[in-house]
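in:
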């Protein structure tokens, strides 16, 4: 298959002493990489990106049960913890969040089945040029250096339609054998969207604006579901599962397994986020930084890899409706005395990160400069 060979070539460093991988028909891509004696050059990250983390992140574990029951005191306390975390590093975790833990386990198990498929079958749903949806091995379809040591499956979720978008995606892409996977992730994405909308209420309360201020912006948006697989790596100190970056989206709701590997940059150092099976990880993204007029920090984070164990995670990115303007509440702008970012749409920022820029810790300021320049020249 020509596209298999192209992906294979992209995943190793051309011109190094690394021997070519065997035919993709003979086995799984990552099993091929794992037997190499060293990490290919295209996967090696600069030393400043791979500095070890030693300390645990000081971030709140927020109990949501009281807020979800309508307890005012519990709501204000949760909002206070969120405000402190988001002004510091943009990261917190939630427990008693209302999402069925059994559903989370089922989703995790279902995606485990996908990642264990032969590479030929996974490549049958590979991302096509210009599309965000499908399978990607190390994002080699977009980049040629500092490749992430991971493979992903991404698909859309909308709840403003009677059509079961996720169920249909799996059935049409992978066939009836994956119908149950689609059903499970349809439920999982629905639960994540519901939690995301409740978190938007808490974020609004924490900023001192009406709790439903952000509802219209997000309720009809197309969210992104991404399943990540980080294989074991023979030289984990050289590679990264995901490089240092801030998510361009609004908030990310992440379930990580017990292997661990998520790091957050806080207090001028990388800090470890220990996994907890009953918790969901929440981080602020660039879009919500703009929606808070820069008050809340977009969380700088990375994922490291393990020499002996593979790691899986499920990331749900809550996104605004594509054509709605991203702008902070007027009350916040008035109190701050200035507006830090221009009005833009989520589709503007998405276009920038998909076509012109690889997301990192400076995505939002670089997007702002590009967007203002683009408006001036048009």
């Amino acid at each position: 298959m020509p596209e298999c060979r192209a992906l294979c070539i992209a995943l190793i460093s051309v011109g190094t002493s690394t021997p070519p991988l065997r035919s993709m028909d003979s086995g799984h891509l990552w099993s091929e990489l794992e037997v190499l004696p060293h990490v290919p050059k295209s996967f090696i990250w600069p030393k400043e990106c791979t500095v070890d983390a030693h300390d645990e992140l000081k971030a709140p574990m927020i109990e949501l049960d009281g807020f979800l029951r309508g307890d005012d005191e519990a709501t204000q306390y949760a909002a206070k913890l969120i405000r402190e975390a988001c002004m510091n590093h943009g990261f917190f975790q939630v427990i008693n969040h209302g999402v069925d833990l059994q559903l989370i386990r089922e989703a995790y198990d279902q995606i485990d089945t996908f990642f264990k498929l032969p590479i030929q079958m996974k490549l049958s749903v590979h991302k096509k040029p210009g599309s965000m949806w499908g399978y990607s091995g190390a994002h080699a379809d977009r980049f040629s250096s500092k490749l992430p040591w991971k493979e992903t499956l991404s698909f859309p979720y909308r709840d403003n339609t009677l059509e079961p978008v996720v169920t249909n995606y799996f059935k049409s892409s992978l066939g009836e054998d994956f119908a149950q996977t689609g059903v499970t992730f349809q439920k999982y994405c629905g639960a994540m969207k519901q939690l995301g909308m409740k978190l938007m209420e808490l974020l609004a309360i924490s900023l001192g604006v009406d709790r439903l201020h952000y509802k219209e912006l997000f309720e009809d948006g197309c969210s992104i579901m991404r399943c990540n697989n980080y294989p074991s790596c023979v030289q984990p100190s050289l590679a990264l599962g995901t490089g240092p970056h801030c998510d361009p989206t609004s908030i990310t709701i992440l379930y990580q397994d017990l292997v661990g590997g998520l790091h957050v940059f806080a207090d001028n150092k990388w800090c470890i986020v220990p996994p907890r099976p009953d918790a969901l990880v929440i981080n602020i993204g660039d879009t919500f930084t703009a929606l808070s007029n820069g008050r809340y920090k977009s969380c700088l984070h990375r994922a490291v890899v393990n020499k002996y164990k593979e790691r899986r995670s499920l990331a749900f990115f809550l996104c605004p409706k594509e054509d709605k303007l991203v702008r902070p509440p007027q009350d916040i702008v008035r109190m701050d005395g200035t507006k830090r970012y221009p009005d833009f749409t989520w589709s503007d920022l998405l276009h920038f990160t998909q076509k012109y820029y690889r997301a990192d810790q400076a995505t939002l300021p670089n997007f702002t400069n590009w967007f203002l320049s683009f408006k001036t020249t048009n």
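note: The chain has one domain: 47-377.
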